[in-house]
Backbone:
């Protein structure tokens, strides 16, 4: 049986932590920043973790991470 392929777009956006959680950055920080208030932009700066409902999908996309 051949190797499973890593989904490269997902590999660039998500990373696995040592405990097995999937870490991600928020979207919405590229343009139209004048419309967003400072609090929202500040909160989007921080990385967060993927919810448990999406974990199974991402583990399938990133088999060797």
Residues:
């Amino acid at each position: 049986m051949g190797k499973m392929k890593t989904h490269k777009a997902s590999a660039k956006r998500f990373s696995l932590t040592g405990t097995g959680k999937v870490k991600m950055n928020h979207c919405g920080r590229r343009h139209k920043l004048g419309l967003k208030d400072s609090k929202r932009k500040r909160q989007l700066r921080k990385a967060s973790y993927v919810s448990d409902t999406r974990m199974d999908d991402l583990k399938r996309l990133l088999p060797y991470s």
About this structure: The longest helix spans residues 52-61. The chain is about 35% helix and 10% strand.
